[in-house]
Task: structure prediction
Amino acid sequence: MLPLDDPRWQSYESGYRLLYDASVPLRQLLEHGASVELWDELWQELHHQGDLGSASYAAVPYLLKYAEHSPKLDWNVFGLIATIELTRPRNSPVPAELTEAYFSAIRSIPVVVGTHPDHAWDAVATRSIVSCIALARDQRLLAQISLELDEEATKHWLENELGYELE
Result:
């Protein structure tokens, strides 16, 4: 994992393709916890209309580290990681110096989630977590479906496409 005090953070780009030092909000996340404003910044800067930057890849291990040490699993962590990983193939490759930490973080998601004490997830957190677990096992289609289909859309699809009768 690239240390948060490494000067390379200042040379990484956001999803807007502009320089963005994600180490600053990530340090804040790890030291002080999350806030609506912090999540807004990370969502906006790390992913923009399907575009990612090198800062997006560098942030993933730290997002997972936050989840690992947080008392509650936050849907933002897993939603953002899933969004980054699902759009990665349409973007620039993960920089060489970030490759090992990035893919190691993706692969370790099931262990982090499985060993975490928080098991009371709402529907949004569950969809995001399931999507990340699917990505960790290279099940990209299942990951996309899990992330995109909310309960209403799933019910509609089950009833209208499969003839499944819901109670």
